[in-house]
Design brief:
By secondary structure, the protein is α/β, with parallel strands linked by helices. The chain is built from 13 helices and 20 strands. The chain has an eight-stranded mixed β-sheet. The chain has a four-stranded antiparallel β-sheet with strand order 12-13-15-14, covered by helices on one side. Strands 3-20 form a two-stranded parallel sheet. Helix 7 runs parallel beside helix 9. Bound molecules: adenosine monophosphate and zinc ion (2 copies). The site of adenosine monophosphate has 14 residues, from helix 8.
Length: about 400
């Protein structure tokens, strides 16, 4: 017993002398738009195997709007979009008129839009290194705003290359090795938009995602880390079927009113000229068929969408499966609104994603109900035993029961 104690103290001393962190390794994986029930289609043997060995939630509740950048940033910051600032994939700052757009690298990389503290920032403050392959929000410029190791987004990079790059970082000498790693795949979202969630093409994308998971497991096994890594597999939101038969031309409804309209699909943001907000709101409300309309002041608190300075004066939210558009969108409606979409309110079950966690820290063979994506950030802090940023919306108490020994 004495000898064992001496060896343990010796190892700890050696690690601390070399400044090597002896804590866990965590890999956070996202399959974009992987709806919660895709796991029930009997085409994901690897994901089911991982979930059986570990913990699986019924679903993962996204934050509103259930879009890619707002939710990936909610997952790594523990904040609702109204607080972390990324309120959509593209939006305008009503005070300055400046635009944010995920397709424009100038704004996408500009740290001024990102008001949360991503977990890789928290980790770095605590002396931990991080790495990411394409996690939305991992390319932000500015000291500490991005993980130490990252790559600029390239949707054409094959999944094997993404995983090999991540694994190369994971096999660096221990003093340089990242402990928090994140990984992103977009297949299920891309095909979900084009063909709808019930298509054979989406099933192919689900199979491809499962193959990516299988390749990750294979590579982790090869480097003998499969039993020491905590794997958390999530998606940012789900997907629902849309149709050119279920479209609403908001510009037509607002004919004669002077307004700027932003975005299309499940959510549209309306910026009327100064002084016209009430008038425009009342008009939209009077014509609200298959959509809901709110001002910044009366949007219900469960959306968590009213506090931020970027919240638009008026938000229009389509009923599930319906799409909002403007006059230009009408011509493109057959192409853009015939597959699937997401962005709708977070309690619409089709918008829910997946949550699977497996590894030394998680309960085995355990199933639970729906978890919330804002709670993943405090869970990560708990795994690494570091202090989370205190300005978060997430709550460890809602999720920590999935940890072993709880
Ligand atoms: P959406 O479905 O509109 O919410 O966004 C999904 C799209 O975001 C996917 O088609 C991805 O290709 C794209 N995407 C994911 N990560 C990035 C990134 N880092 N930069 C730009 N686009 C991205
Ligand atoms: Zn997405
Ligand atoms: Zn999408």
């Amino acid at each position: 017993m004495k000898k064992l104690f001496k060896i343990t103290v010796g190892i700890a001393l050696l690690l601390s002398l070399q400044n090597i962190y002896a804590g866990p390794y965590v890999i956070l994986v996202s399959f974009d738009g992987f709806r919660w029930d895709y796991l029930n289609r009997r085409i994901t043997p690897t994901l089911l195997d991982i979930s059986t060995k570990g913990t699986r939630a019924l679903s993962l509740r996204p934050s509103f709007p259930s879009k890619t950048f707002p939710n990936h940033y909610s997952i790594v910051t523990g904040m609702y979009p109204e607080n972390h600032g990324i309120i959509a994939n593209n939006f305008i700052d009503p005070q300055t008129g400046e635009r944010y757009n995920i397709s424009d690298t100038v704004s996408k990389w500009d740290e001024k839009w990102y008001m949360g503290e991503a977990f890789w920032e928290t980790a770095e403050k605590n002396g931990l290194k991080s790495a990411s392959i394409f996690w939305p929000g991992s390319e932000i410029r500015g000291a500490g705003k991005h993980p130490e190791y990252f790559k600029y987004y390239n949707s054409r990079m094959p999944y094997t290359d993404r995983i090999d790059t991540l694994l190369a970082w994971l096999t660096l000498p221990s003093s340089n090795r990242p402990h928090f790693l994140s990984l992103y795949f977009e297949y299920t979202d891309t095909y979900g938009h084009r063909f709808g969630p019930n298509s054979s093409e989406v099933n192919e994308a689900i199979r491809k995602s499962d193959s990516a998971a299988a390749y990750l497991v294979k590579r982790l096994t090869e480097i003998s880390m499969i039993d020491s890594v905590d794997l958390i597999i999530v998606s940012d939101h789900g997907m629902t079927e849309t149709s050119p038969e279920r479209i609403i031309n908001v510009e037509e409804i607002l004919e004669g009113y002077n307004c700027d309209l932003y975005d299309s699909g499940p959510v549209m943001r309306v910026h009327p000229s100064a002084g016209d907000v009430k008038k425009v709101y009342e008009h939209l409300k009077g014509n609200a068929s298959h959509f809901k309309v709110y001002t910044k002041d009366n949007i219900p608190s469960f959306y968590h969408y009213s506090k931020g300075l970027l919240t638009p004066p008026i938000t229009v939210i389509a009923d599930p499966g319906w799409s909002l558009l403007d006059n230009k969108g009408i011509d493109r409606s057959a192409k853009y609104f015939s597959g699937g979409n997401h962005g709708y309110e977070k309690d619409f079950l089709d918008m829910n994603g997946i949550f699977i966690a497996s590894g030394p820290s998680f309960k085995s063979c355990y199933q639970t109900g729906t978890l919330w994506n804002i709670d993943i950030y405090p869970l990560l802090a708990k795994l690494f035993d570091i202090k989370p940023n205190k300005n978060i919306d997430g709550n460890l108490e809602r999720i920590e029961f999935i940890l072993k020994g709880r």
